[in-house]
Design goal:
47% helix, extended, alpha/beta, 7 strands, five-stranded mixed beta sheet, 10% strand, single chain
């Protein structure tokens, strides 16, 4: 209903109706304005702001230099005085001690040629020729040794150096290795590592507590002259917070899309608790009752954080404070047994969670229905069952941070080498990232690991003993980082 301000009606009831309609319109527009402002500020933070939601106290503290590792070779340099006579009085000098300091040196990488000579022998009686069998090569007819292949893989998938840059580095050593040659090497190496990746997946999916997430990767689509969006599905195992028996691990699986059928196929034989974000496709996993979904408090907190940053809402700030209390308790019980964690949570976390639920329900009735704050509250309340599972099982974590950390290297790789050359390139990305990230989680140096594993495989390592080459088992035989 519209009126001219100079010609307002005199009917009181009609004026009341007009005011009520105007209030509804204003409330709706205020909510929409707040939502759009929140989107603008979120995009500004993504483009120009800091990535972390909090400032780590360690960033403010002056770091102390750690001692250099014992396994590094030492080169001793003796700096002694020129004689044993005191330059002041002419008396004899005698040793009273010494000062020792260390500096870190760098030995540049060096390419070398391994020349294999196989003498031939002939029998004068029967003319038979005898010669040692040629060694197996990882790449049929290729030049690369296991050491060089391991270097290429680690440079690309761990240090995120694209193959064309590696080709330029080799060129500085007067060695011509085109990018196409390096692509072939990566594919050949992954052929050997594929079975080991399958064993890693089987080991991880046999666990009863996992974290799941996915991240996009651009994949070249030559027929259309552009890239398409593939996905890396990531499944992480992390039991150290509750002193669990299984080693940490992360597996990556490539898929051309984000359909719900992908995690359904990956987790076909999985039974247990799956920590997930808000992706609706995970709900299909709960159909037969074998999988229980635990929701993520970090994602819930992030909604309120974005509202607080964009609008300065005191309600959002209060929600952050209450969620922060849960994390204080978690920090106190981290590394304890699951039974101890459960007892502490029931004593201290449960009252906080119950009070938070009641408070959120009350706040939802007081805020504009279309506001970002209302969306954040509804996001939390709609996932409350999954958010509170940690109160019933000491092994369940508050968030999906372990798998979020496993995704970060993919994001770095995506930024540097931009895209996978094909779906096969996405599969190879998943294979090598699985092994490298699991190495890092278990304190294993990726280059030493891949060099040794590729060497053993090309020398005929038994297939039925591949489990002994999984990073944590390999570390047991090679305890020192090299």
């Amino acid at each position: 209903m519209r009126f001219e301000l100079e010609n307002l009606p005199s009917d009181t009831a009609l004026l009341h109706r007009l005011v009520r309609e105007m209030a509804v319109v204003v409330d709706s527009r205020d909510g929409e304005i707040e939502r759009l402002q929140s989107i603008i500020k979120k995009l500004q933070r993504a483009q120009f702001g800091r990535r972390s939601e909090r400032l780590d106290a360690d960033q403010l503290a002056r770091s102390r230099r750690k001692p250099l590792p014992d396994h590094l070779p030492r080169e001793d340099v003796l700096l002694d005085v020129s004689g044993d006579i005191c330059g002041c009085c002419g008396g004899a000098l005698h040793a009273i001690g010494e000062s020792i300091s260390e500096m870190l040196d760098w030995v540049p990488a060096q390419l070398r040629v391994v020349r294999i000579t196989r003498p031939k022998y002939a029998c004068r009686s029967c003319n038979k020729v005898v010669q040692a069998v040629a060694p197996e090569r990882l790449i049929a007819g290729g030049l690369a040794t296991p050491a060089l292949l391991a270097q290429v893989l680690v440079s690309k998938y761990c240090d995120h150096t694209p193959l064309y840059r590696q080709s330029q580095i080799f060129a500085r050593h007067d060695v011509d290795l085109p990018r196409s040659t390096l692509v072939g090497w990566v594919g050949g190496a992954c052929w050997w590592l594929e079975t080991l990746h399958e064993r890693l997946c089987k080991n991880v999916f046999a666990s009863d507590h996992l974290f799941a997430d996915d991240t996009p990767i651009p994949v070249l689509d030559p027929g259309r002259g552009r890239t398409k969006t593939g996905r890396l599905w990531v499944y992480a195992r992390e039991q150290r917070p509750w002193a669990g028996p299984e080693p940490p691990a992360a597996v990556y699986l490539f898929a051309p899309d984000r359909k719900a059928e992908r995690p359904v196929a990956h987790l076909e034989r999985f039974k247990g608790v799956l920590h997930v974000d808000g992706y609706a496709g995970f709900e299909r996993l709960t159909g037969n009752g074998d999988i229980i979904l635990a929701a993520c408090w970090a994602h819930t907190r992030r909604r309120f954080y974005e509202v607080a940053e964009a609008t300065g809402s005191p309600v959002a700030a209060e929600a952050l404070r209450r969620i922060g209390e849960l994390y204080v308790i978690e920090a106190r019980v981290r590394g304890q047994s699951s039974a101890h964690r459960l007892a502490e949570r029931r004593s201290f976390s449960r009252p906080i969670v119950q009070a938070l639920h009641t408070w959120l329900e009350a706040q939802l009735t007081r805020v504009a229905g279309r506001s970002t704050l209302a969306e954040a509250i509804r996001y939390a309340l709609s996932r409350w069952e999954g958010l509170t599972r940690f109160l019933h099982d000491g092994r369940i974590e508050l968030d999906t941070n372990p798998v979020e950390r496993a995704i970060r290297p993919v994001a770095l790789g995506r930024k540097n080498h931009l895209f996978a050359g094909s779906d096969g390139g996405g599969i190879r990305w998943a294979i090598v990232c699985s092994l490298i990230e699991t190495c890092k989680l278990n304190g294993v140096e990726p280059y030493a690991y891949l060099h040794d594993v590729l060497t053993r495989m090309v020398n005929g390592y038994p297939v039925n003993r591949l489990d002994e080459l999984l990073p944590w088992a390999w570390k047991a035989e090679n305890p020192v980082k090299t």
